[in-house]
Amino acid sequence: MADPIPSVAPELITAFKGAMRRLAATVTVISTGDGSERHGMTATAVTSVTTDPPALLICVNKTASLHPVLATGTRFCVNLLKDSHAEVAGAFGGRLQGPERFGTGDWASNAHGVPYLTDAQANLFCRVDALMLYGTHTIFVGLVEDVRLFGDISPLIYQDGRYIKAS
Ligand SMILES: Cc1cc2nc3c(=O)[nH]c(=O)nc-3n(C[C@H](O)[C@H](O)[C@H](O)COP(=O)(O)O)c2cc1C
């Protein structure tokens, strides 16, 4: 068990946020569902963990509506957005609420009922294999069960608080 998280000076938090604004990241939408319900949210805190087995991690705020669903150990999909998906990122980032979000973009469901964005650069179908609580967030490790690639590599990138296209 890690030591309790210490309190830090506000200036350090401001500087940290300033540094993170310089950490460009591909925008994703994490989606989950069981055929009857669908949930999803925009996320950039997504990182590869291991290749064998193929695994990735996602950091999800405990206040996010997706959080309690993932905490059940469900299957989910990481949809890597492409540069034309700023509308999708906005909808799943809080502009729309609940299942209404799936009205933006072209969504289908796999055999397990997990929704995926059909024209995402890639869909990584995972199931929750481990989790770690840390402060305001939970780090979920997703064991990748299937991957679908689509089209060219053309990521939607989030940097300095806005969406940009890779040049
Ligand atoms: C570009 C972008 C990246 C985001 N990355 C994350 C992330 O990695 N983890 C997270 O918990 N929330 C992230 N968010 C915030 C959630 O998408 C947002 O709070 C969402 O509304 C949460 O879902 P809810 O409204 O259903 O609770 C991000 C938002 C944006 C716009």
TrEMBL record:
Keywords: Oxidoreductase. It holds the Pfam family Flavin_Reduct. Residues 20-165 form the Flavin reductase like domain. One of its GO terms (biological process) is pyrimidine nucleobase catabolic process. One of its GO terms (molecular function) is riboflavin reductase (NADPH) activity. PANTHER family: FLAVIN REDUCTASE, FMN REDUCTASE (NADH) RUTF. This is Flavin reductase. It comes from Zavarzinia compransoris.
